[in-house]
Structure formats: C-alpha cells, structure tokens
Amino acid sequence: MRAVHPHLPHPGHGPVFQGYRFDPSVNSPTAIAMSGGIDSLVAAHVLKRQGHDLVGIHFTTGFESEAVDLSSIEDQLDIKIHQMDLSAEFNRAVVDYFVKTYARGKTPNPCVVCNRTIKFGVLAQRAKTLGAEKIATGHYAGTRTRSNGGIALVKGVDGVKDQSYFLAMLSQEQLKQAVFPLGRMTKEQVRNIARDNRLMPVEEKESQDICFIKAPGFSGFVAARLSTPPSPGDIVLTDGTVVGRHRGLHRYTIGQRRGLNSPGPEPYYVKTIDMENNLLVVGGKKELYTIKVAVGDLNWITPPLASSLKVTTKIRYSHKGAASTLSIENDRTTLVFDAPQLAVTPGQVAVFYRDEEVLGAGIIQ
C-alpha cells in the first residue's frame, strides 16, 4: 500500500480532483513546472508520494534577475529537472501582448495570457518531447472530470490563494493535460508539508503578476517598447473641462487616483482613456461605477445551454465577485451586474463562476 503523508489530503476524502487519483496503468511520466518556490516544490513532493513518475521543467523568460539553483531542487526531490529557454516565445506571446494592449488604452492581465500560451501551451508541448502527457503546476485550483469526459475547472479550497481566475482562459484540451496537486490544500498546509519534509525553496519571493517588469519601472518598460513615444496631453472632466496635464496615457489605468496632480472639489479618478484624442478623462468616485459592460474573446470551459445565464463574475483577480447576468446574442455578449461595480477596466479578464466552478471567461471591452 502506498504511504500517505499525515499532512496530505487522503485520496479517498472529498471531491475528486485531477492529480489526486493516480492511475498506475499510465506509463508516461508527468511533467511539473518548477519555479524554485515553495508551491512547485511541495506540488512535486505530493505527486512523488502518490507514485507519479516525475520529470521537472524549469523555463526561463529572459527577465530573471538571477539563475535558480536547479541542483538543490533535484537533490531534494530526487528528480531530473530540464531547463528550457522560452524567452522568444514569452516575448512574442506575453510581453508584446502586454505592450500592445496598453498602446490601445486598455489594461491587460499578462498572467492569464502566460498560462494559456506559455505554461499550458509551449511548455506543455515541450514536455511531450520528454514523454510527458500531463503537466503539473503549483496553482491553487482544481479540476473535475465530468461523466461526459469533459473537464471542469474549480476554485482551490484556500479562498485567499485560489488561482482559478488565472486559469480561466485554458481550453478543454489544456485542462485535460493539467494536474493541480495543491487544489485541495491551504497555503498553511503547503508550508507545513515543506517544513515536515525539510523542503527548502530556492526562490523565497511569492510569484508576481507582472514578473517581467523591473527597473526602470512600469511606465518606463512600456514606453521603451512602444513604436511611437507617448506624448503628454490634457486631463479633462466628462464635460470637456481641462483640469490638468498627463505625462502619457500609458501611465494610467481605470480607477487610478495617484499621479493625476489635478486639484478639484473632490478627488479625481481615471474614468476613461481616450487614445484617439490623447485625453485622460477623470471624474469623482461615483462616476466610476458601471452596471453594464460588453465582453469579447470568450473562452467557454463549460459552454452555456441558454442565451442568458446567472453567474458570479470576477472583473479582476482581487475582486470578490459580483452577481450578474450574462446575455449572449449572436456575436455580442453583454454582462449586466445586479449592483454597479467600481472601476470595470477594459482589457482585464472577466471570469464567470457558478458556485465553485469556472464556466468561462472573456476580455472586458
């Protein structure tokens, strides 16, 4: 009988998440993306205890401050870790998308794009060259296999660390390959497993949403990669009254207050970014609330059975989620919130939930 670690969720308890029911008849190894942090380290440890034949992969993007000590991870886990340079693919799929989206006056989420195109895209394909049909990560999320063979994406049990939002643009094919060992664990349990098994991460920092931006900072990073240098312009109210000057629209996002330097009877916030006229439109906080928004570039994990459905929508990762109605008419999808939401931002990802399940996602227009 396979030993079960006292701090691991027992395979027979709770809902079945992919990665917790190991099939010994599957002969191909499981690849695991290793960052050097505690989450991927514990995820690999959990899979080994369950009997998976593991092959580690550490990919680089070209934006690393220093190299990760892979030999230390290999010694701790007793697995081979392959290093793969994905800098060209990362620049094309993630960085270029990030910069181009800002150039259109929108605010992207590069982490969502990285998961879809890099981790579960290019990296998963590279893993197949090593014989691996599955790829595991340290995300706090889970999957369930439906009776029809489809895969459902569900929230991780740790409400604070849940990362299902960042995985909502994955396809069914990608989810079928995905293994999330930490889906039924809290961060505290992960730390306990690391401590009890003397697992020492070589990367102490938590993952950052925008891992590729360092010096000279956000605005400098974007400006350096734009084909046309950003130019200053007017800051205006919705009635056209000029209240100040901006230093380039790439420096701002919807809901931003800091850095406006526009005194008024009440604090001003960014309401609209008008790229065509190089105007930054601002207003009071009450003007930032939105009841209705269009959503495009939809990705359905569980396709809707009706043209209108009630969902809980997260309009950004830190958002708690809002009750809303999704209406699908021909090629147009509209999201109507039960109550107005603050700073709904074009370019961000709207993720649709039904209880703990992710139904799908789209880009706010």
From TrEMBL:
The active site is at 114 (nucleophile), 211 (cysteine persulfide intermediate). Keywords: ATP-binding, Cytoplasm, Disulfide bond, Nucleotide-binding, RNA-binding, Transferase, tRNA processing, tRNA-binding. Belongs to the MnmA/TRMU family. NCBIfam families: PRK00143.1, trmU. One of its GO terms (molecular function) is tRNA-uridine 2-sulfurtransferase activity. ATP binds at residues 33-40, 59, 138. One of its GO terms (biological process) is tRNA wobble position uridine thiolation. This is tRNA-specific 2-thiouridylase MnmA. The lineage of its organism: Bacteria, Pseudomonadati, Thermodesulfobacteriota, Desulfobacteria, Desulfobacterales. Residues 293-364 form the tRNA-specific 2-thiouridylase MnmA-like C-terminal domain. It comes from the Bacteria. Residues 161-163, 316-317 are annotated as: Interaction with tRNA. It holds the Pfam family tRNA_Me_trans.
